[in-house]
Amino acid sequence: MKTLKPLSDFFKAIEKDYRISITHIGIYAALLQFRAEKGFVNPIEVYRYEIMKLAKITGPVTYHKCMRELNEYGYISYLPKRNRNQRSTIYFPI
Fold first, then answer.
1. Averaged over 6-12, what is the pLDDT?
2. What does the alpha-carbon distance between residue 44 and residue 92 come to, in Å, rounded to a whole number?
3. Sorting pLDDT into bands at 50, 70 and 90, what band is 10?
4. In which element (H, E) is residue 91 found?
5. How many whole angstroms separate alpha carbon 40 and alpha carbon 66?
6. Cα-Cα-Cα-Cα dihedral of 22, 26, 58, 79, to 10°?
7. Residue pair 27/57 in contact by the 8 Å Cβ criterion
8. Contact criterion met (CB below 8 Å) for 50 and 62
9. C-alpha to C-alpha distance for 83 and 94, rounded to whole angstroms
10. Could you tell me if 13 and 19 are in contact, meaning their C-beta atoms sit under 8 angstroms apart?
11. What is the pLDDT of residues 52-62, one digit of tens each?
12. Buried b vs exposed e over 47-70: b needs ≥16 C-beta within 10 Å?
């Protein structure tokens, strides 16, 4: 299925990446679900609470840490907004 390819590619990429935890996986899966709901656009624009709800994460510190790390490790390109009233932008590698 075409819709599972990004998740499958992610799992192949993280197979030997010891830095990735279950929380990273949950956030990435939530990002992909959010993207699918928006018609597979790239980039997506999200509020933190939207992804936290999908990923079942309650701590904003954990969310920001994992998002920053996914960005640093090259799995996404994350452009956070410091203003709570603006959506952050997230690019997926093509």
1. 84
2. 9
3. confident
4. strand 88-91
5. 22
6. 110
7. yes
8. no
9. 28
10. no
11. 999 999 999 99
12. ebebbbebbebeeeeebeebbebb
Which of the four pLDDT bands, split at 50, 70 and 90, describes residue 23?
A: very high
Residues written for the chain: 94
Give me the torsion for CA of 9, 42, 59, 27, rounded to 10°: -10
Torsions phi, psi for 82 (to 5 deg):
-80, -20
Pull the structure tokens for residue 62: 């954990």
Encode pLDDT of 34-81 as tens digits: 999 999 999 999 999 999 999 999 999 999 999 999 999 999 999 999
Angstrom CA distances, 82 to 55, 88, 90, stand at 21, 9, 14
Is the omega angle on the peptide bond into residue 80 within 30 degrees of 0, that is, cis?
Answer: no
Main-chain phi, psi angles of 45, to 5 degrees: -120, 125
